[in-house]
Amino acid sequence: DLMRRKVVAIIFLLMVVFIPKFAGYETYYIQTGSMSPVIPEGSLVFVKEIEFANVKPGDIITFCNDDETEFFTHRVIEIDKNNQMFTTKGDANQEEDPAPTSYYFAKGRVDFSIPLVGYIAKFLNSVVGKVVIGAVYLAWIAVEIEMFIMKRKSSQEED
Question: How far is 107 from 101, CA to CA, in rounded Å?
Fold first, then answer.
């Protein structure tokens, strides 16, 4: 029964992480408290592409740096329509971000977030997390095979 609960929990987590991709969402986990309390550290945010014309001040967007190695999720506080640039700021930060962000680097608008699930998503996407998931899956298969063999032996002994 405990094994089944663990499997159900893993399936639920995989659904939370992977099903949104089919709905056109990218997921990012929040590593800092810059958007607290609206989006606390450890949250998983669900981001959908958005046309520049549809972004409004107050929207929360996810964007990356020039070489796409870091991602940020901050609130749009001002829009430069002529240059397609956003001035952004983390809700918990005193100052706005040092430089405006080009729409080119915007990944999309945050539609919703789930607190704490980002920690789990980060783990599941890590090498260690993938190894653990693989090991749990292989252990589950081994248990199922062993149960099948035991049932088969039991039914043969009854004959």
Answer: 11
